[in-house]
Structures are given as structure tokens and as C-alpha cells.
TrEMBL record:
Organism: Drosophila lebanonensis (Fruit fly)
Nicastrin small lobe domain residues: 37-215
Localization of this protein: Membrane
Claim: Glycoprotein is one of the keywords in the record: yes
Main subcellular location of this protein, as a coarse class: membrane
Domain of life (superkingdom): Eukaryota
Protein known as: Nicastrin
Length: 706
């Protein structure tokens, strides 16, 4: 028995050694590459994005420096399939479509490398007309009436390539890290970049990318497969794009509701709201990459400062000429994908389910909305227009208020906001409201398009020209107009955001009070500085800490992701927005102790000093899930609501290795077959001669060994 145990132990040790040796061999063979993958999304009619094969796509590395390098791959590739490494200035619509047409037999992987970015002059993957098939549509045609896609120079995104909406038969992998890029280039130079005629005869440096997408065809097919499978198991093929929008009122609402679910909800028509909105989200081709600095963050920063400034300037609600007036601030999520958040908001108001019963307030309907001010993209803050579908006294009066403050020598903003009336309105949340009713009083504040990196990985702090001042001064309090110029020059981004925010806030102040604002207090550019730092550079920032519970874990030293994602996905941008609205729009309650500040709407936050303070808050979440996924037997091709879903996947990974040549593969296969044949022959010979080779032991000897 002891001998058997020793034998088992020896075999176990040998097994562990073989496993360890196998892992070491694998580590020597493969080197992982960190990056971000393009993934697949679907809507009611088709699919877009990228996918690898089920087991992973493999291609030989080839560095593309000029377009002639692509011509070489597409005309006479010596050892396909290849994986071209393309710098951003060559990652164009024309080049990517050429690779797509070549097919996966020639091009199996595409790598976008962060190299020679100084040669890049534009990089937008979005369509020339964002959300082209939603919003206000042409009569009897499912296409935007507010943007002419046939005339790109006059569109809302003149630099758009539309690559975000293409379906590619190969994976596309973005490698941002310079060291990772250099590793790929070194491998290419060492093994591939010489004697191209012999590529088929030798081992080459190759990359394997795994990013297989489970979903295919369109949302209708994918959801049907998912629902069918879910009856038998837990497999999912796709998930609806879903997130959370965030809203807050300037004053706490005083319109309680009967919480009995059997009683139909009714609207308090005496309540009136000015609706101030913006877009919370952004997107790009690659998973988890894309800050949307210009495409949505500037508008978001402006709305936040407008809300904070009004909270500080306005008297109590009861002192207003109409004490029933309020301001409703909303940051819509999912607007990049056919206005998911605003469509849901309109749907909920139509059905009297906004806000939810859990808020203990009466529902808000269109009867309660006095007018809407939608803050869109602010690419060039010196060239802003107020867009309306038709000319109205409301629009003319509000524009006059804006320009009174924009051009006032008292404040030195030196801006001139122009009027733009007509069907060509920007692709903003207001389109969801105007699609329901073209007479809806919507005003859109939007700059002339100037963002050459709209909806791309390069719409970042560099694109927007942000430089963090990192002062230790008070950024919450308002400052005097003369003091604001002590921290930043007039062309600094922080000053531009603060100036526009002040103009809008002053105009709303005059609308609510009936009195012209004559004070010297303006929006604090230091608040814009902290806000932009949190969303562009690091969530581990002072503003986020001040708006959180004292002692809460700090945010990651990375900017929060603002892609809408899916149920169960990252919703960190919504979470931080919820906290910011709760902090910047709330009323301090200095007389309430910490132990009594535990139930909403009271909320205990760290505050600017980190010591903790009680606040009376008004913010809340609402679902940003398209009504298409709520309506039974919805017609997925109707185009009425957004139908975007995201495919599921098992993993994203990339690694480089030496791919053996075809000759090597054939030689290995041939040797294996020869060894197999020889083995069978030997076994046959030994078996047929076993009586000679293995004589029986004589019985007398057998007794000795028994």
C-alpha cells in the first residue's frame, strides 16, 4: 500500500510539473496586448460594429505608414490573412471600406494604433446627420427633416465618416498605450518587415483577437432568440441599451400625491415648469473609450453651473411673482442612440408616470411645461445660436434677455447670440418633444458645428483645450465679476463655460422674477475647472468627494465612462450626476444634525470642507430605456422609438505570437501522419509476433515468482 501511495505521489508531482511547464511555454509563446475592442450593436433593421470568429481571429502584423502599404496588402498579399496596424490619420472611411471589401480571407484583424496622431486633422465616426432616422422626420420618409445628409458641408457633423454605423466582418482593436504599440512595431520589424517573397516560407509575427459577438441580424431577431432561450436557460444574446437619466427641480415640489395604487394619477395643472435639459451620454466605436468632451460635456457643464447659479441667486419660491413656477433640470441618458432618454421622458409624461409614485409627488404632464430650453453642443462658445422651429414671441423675448446680458459692458462677456429659425434644428433632445408636437415651445441653445472629433476616442481634454488649474480656493461660492478674471484669462475654457452659464442663468432669473438681474455675482469658473477635471481626467476629485457621503470610497483615478451601457453595466456617470445635482441644487440645512439627516429628501454630504453637512435635495433618477421594449408586440421596423441593443460577448483579448509558416504546418502534419503510420505498423508487427517476442514463463519458474 505504501509503495502504491509513493507511486501516486510521483505521478502527481510529474503532472504538476507538466502543467507548470505548459503554462510557461504558453507564456513564452504568447504576449498579451492591452486595448479596447469594437463591438456590435443592433437596431430594428440591421447590425453595426465588429466581431471576431468564435475561436478568435488571427492575422499577420503589417505596419501601415502610407496608403501604398494598404495597396500592397490588398493587391498581392504573400501570406494572408493580415492584420494591418493603422495610425489614426489613415483610419478613414475609404480605407476601412477597402479592407471590408477585401474580406476576412485577406484582412482578418484591424489594429488602430496611437501613432503619428500629429498627422490627424479630423476623426469622427458618427454620421453627417447624427440620429438621422429619429427626431423630426420628412413626410412619409423615415429620414431626418432637420439635416441634409446629401450635403455634408452643411450638415450637423461635416466631418463624419459613418464608420460607427458600419458592420465589419473582422474585429477592430484600438491600442492607446505607446509601449504596447511599440511592442507590436518591434515584432513586425524583427520578423515580418523583410524579404516579403518568403513570407509564406517562414514564421511571422501575428496577432490573435478574441471579441466574438453573440448577437446577429437585428434587434428583433436577437430579442426573439434571447426570449426563447431564456425559457430553457439563462443565455442572452443581446441586451437593450439602458441607463438612468437624472433630474432635479430648483425648488422642492409641494404637490403630494395619494399613494393608493388603485386611484388613477392626476396632474396638478397649477404647477408650471421651465424645462432645462442637456445630454448626459456620449459614444465611440470602442468599448469604454470616449470622453465626449465637446460633443456633450460642455453642454452638461453649462447646465450644471446654470442650476447652481440660480439656486444661489433666486429668492424663496414663495417670493416669486408666480409661486407655482419651478425649474426642472434634466440630464438625458442615451441620446446618442436615437434619443433614448428623451423619448422615454416624453412617453412617461404622456402616460402620467413621471415622476414615479415612489417620489410621492403628482405626475408632470405637458400641461405643466411652460417652455423648454435645451442646451446642445457648444463647440464654439463664441458662435452660439438660439434655434426654434418657428418664430414665437417667447423665443424673441428670451433671445433679447440673453443678449442683454451677453453684450452688457457690466459683465464683459462680449458675446452675441444669433437667432436661427427653421426646420434645420440641431440633433438634440428637443427633437423628441417636437416630433410629438411641432408647436411645443422648445428653444435650443447650440453652437455652430466645429468639433472634428465628434463621437470618437479623440474627443478628449486635448480636443477641448482643457488645462486643470488645481487651485485650493472655494469653487462653490459665487464670485464677483471682477474677481473671476483673476484666475483665468478670457480665452480659457473655464471662463467660457462660466460666461455662457451666467448669461443663461441671468435670462432665466429675469423670466422667473420679472426683474432684470443687476447684481455683480457670476458663475464661478473654478467650479467649471473642478467639474471638467472630474469628467475628463479623474473621478478621484474634490467635487465628487464633496458631493458624496463623508468617508465614501474615492472614485477611480480615471474619468467616468459616459456610454449608456446596458442593465447591469457601468452607470457611474449617472451616479456622479445624481450626487452633483444633490449637492449643487440643494438647500443647506445647518440646524439639522447628522443623526436626523438620514431620510430623503434630506441627505448628508461631505461638503467642500469634508466635515459633513445636511442638505435638502430634489434630485432623482428616471429610466432611460426605450419605450419599444415596454410595448407589447412593438413593430421593430416602425421607427417610432429607439430599438438599439448591444450584443453580449464572453471576452475581449488580444495577444501576439509567431505564426508558423504554411510549409512548417504541412511539414508538421506530414511528420505526424508518418509517425502515426509507423506506429500502426509497429503495433501490427509486435502483435503478430507476440508469441515469439513474449514467451510464456514455464510453470516451475512461475511458481518461483508467484
Amino acid at each position: 500500500m505504501a509503495q502504491q501511495m509513493k507511486t501516486v505521489a510521483v505521478w502527481f508531482i510529474l503532472l504538476l510539473q507538466s502543467i507548470t511547464y505548459g503554462e510557461r511555454t504558453r507564456d513564452k509563446m504568447y504576449q498579451p496586448i492591452v486595448g479596447a475592442a469594437c463591438f456590435r450593436r443592433l437596431n430594428g433593421t440591421h447590425q453595426i460594429g465588429c466581431s471576431s470568429t468564435y475561436s478568435g481571429s488571427v492575422g499577420v502584423l503589417h505596419l501601415v505608414n502610407i496608403e501604398a502599404d494598404l495597396d500592397f496588402l490588398l493587391t498581392s498579399p504573400p501570406s494572408p490573412p493580415y492584420a494591418p496596424m493603422i495610425p489614426p490619420h489613415l483610419f478613414t472611411h475609404r480605407n476601412l471600406l477597402r479592407l471590408k471589401e477585401a474580406g476576412p480571407d485577406i484582412i482578418s484583424v484591424v489594429l488602430l494604433i496611437n501613432r503619428n496622431s500629429d498627422k490627424m486633422t479630423q476623426f469622427s465616426h458618427e454620421l453627417n446627420c447624427p440620429n438621422q432616422y429619429s427626431g423630426l422626420l420628412k413626410p412619409n420618409i423615415s429620414e431626418s427633416a432637420t439635416c441634409d445628409a446629401s450635403n455634408p458641408p452643411n450638415s450637423w457633423n461635416p466631418w463624419g465618416t459613418g464608420l460607427l454605423h458600419q458592420d465589419f466582418p473582422f474585429p477592430i482593436y484600438y491600442i492607446a498605450d505607446v509601449n504596447e504599440t511599440q511592442t507590436l512595431v518591434n515584432c513586425f520589424e524583427k520578423f515580418n518587415n523583410f524579404d516579403y517573397e518568403s513570407h509564406a516560407l517562414r514564421s511571422l509575427c501575428a496577432v490573435e483577437v478574441k471579441s466574438f459577438m453573440s448577437a446577429a441580424v437585428n434587434t428583433e431577431v436577437c430579442m426573439r432568440r434571447t426570449n426563447f432561450i431564456n425559457n430553457l436557460g439563462s443565455t442572452k444574446y443581446c441586451d437593450p441599451l439602458e441607463g438612468r437619466s437624472v433630474y432635479a427641480t430648483l425648488y422642492p415640489r409641494n404637490s403630494p400625491e395619494n399613494l393608493t395604487t388603485e386611484v388613477p394619477r392626476s396632474v396638478n395643472t397649477a404647477e408650471k415648469f421651465i424645462l432645462v435639459t442637456t445630454r448626459l451620454d456620449t459614444t465611440s466605436m470602442f468599448d469604454g473609450v470616449g470622453l465626449g468632451a465637446l460633443d456633450s460635456l460642455m453642454g452638461f457643464a453649462t447646465l450644471t453651473q446654470v442650476a447652481h447659479l440660480l439656486r444661489q441667486l433666486l429668492p424663496p419660491q414663495g417670493s416669486l411673482p408666480d409661486p407655482r413656477r419651478n425649474v426642472l433640470f434634466v440630464a438625458f441618458n442615451g441620446e446618442s442612440f436615437d434619443y433614448i432618454g428623451s423619448q422615454r421622458f416624453v412617453y412617461d409624461m404622456e402616460n402620467l408616470v413621471f415622476p414615479a409614485r415612489s417620489t410621492k409627488s403628482t405626475p408632470i404632464s405637458f400641461e405643466n411645461i411652460e417652455f423648454m430650453l435645451d442646451i446642445g453642443t457648444l463647440d464654439d462658445i463664441t458662435n452660439i445660436k438660439l434655434h426654434t422651429l418657428i418664430t414665437t414671441p417667447l423665443a424673441q423675448d428670451f433671445l433679447k434677455k440673453l443678449n442683454n446680458y451677453a453684450s452688457s459692458p457690466r459683465y464683459g462677456f462680449n458675446l452675441d447670440i444669433q437667432s436661427d429659425v427653421g426646420i434645420q434644428i440641431p440633433p438634440t433632445s428637443a427633437q423628441s418633444f417636437l416630433r410629438r408636437d411641432t408647436q411645443f415651445p422648445a428653444l435650443i441653445l447650440n453652437a455652430v458645428p466645429a468639433n472634428k472629433y465628434y463621437h470618437s476616442i479623440y474627443d478628449d481634454a486635448v480636443n477641448v483645450g482643457f488645462s486643470y488649474a488645481n487651485t485650493s480656493r472655494d469653487y462653490i461660492s459665487l464670485i464677483d465679476v471682477s474677481e473671476s478674471k483673476n484666475y483665468f484669462n478670457a480665452t480659457a475654457l473655464q471662463m467660457k463655460v462660466a460666461n455662457v452659464s451666467s448669461i443663461v442663468a441671468f435670462a432665466l432669473y429675469e423670466t422667473l422674477t420679472g426683474l432684470q438681474y443687476t447684481g455683480n455675482k457670476v458663475a464661478n469658473p473654478l467650479l467649471a475647472d473642478e467639474f471638467l477635471y472630474c469628467f475628463l481626467q479623474s473621478a478621484d476629485c474634490r467635487l465628487f468627494k464633496a458631493s458624496s457621503y463623508p468617508g465614501s470610497p474615492s472614485g477611480l483615478p480615471l474619468p467616468p465612462m459616459r456610454y449608456i451601457s446596458v442593465l447591469g453595466g457601468s452607470q457611474e456617470s449617472s451616479g456622479w450626476t445624481y450626487r452633483l445635482f444633490g449637492y449643487l441644487l440643494s438647500q443647506p440645512q445647518p440646524s439639522v444634525a447628522k443623526e436626523n439627516c438620514t431620510n430623503l429628501p434630506l441627505h448628508w454630504v461631505a461638503g467642500i470642507n469634508g466635515t459633513g453637512e445636511c442638505r435638502l435635495t430634489t434630485q432623482s433618477y428616471m429610466d432611460a430605456l426605450s419605450p419599444a421594449f415596454l410595448i407589447e408586440n412593438y413593430d421593430w421596423r416602425s421607427g417610432k422609438y429607439s430599438t438599439w441593443t448591444e450584443s453580449t460577448w464572453s471576452q475581449f483579448s488580444a495577444r501576439i505570437f509567431l505564426r508558423p509558416s504554411h510549409v512548417h504546418k504541412i511539414t508538421t502534419l506530414t511528420i505526424g501522419i508518418v509517425v502515426l503510420v509507423i506506429s500502426f505498423c509497429l503495433i501490427y508487427i509486435i502483435n503478430s509476433r507476440s508469441d515469439v517476442l513474449f514467451d510464456d514463463v514455464p510453470a516451475s519458474n512461475a511458481a518461483l515468482f508467484g
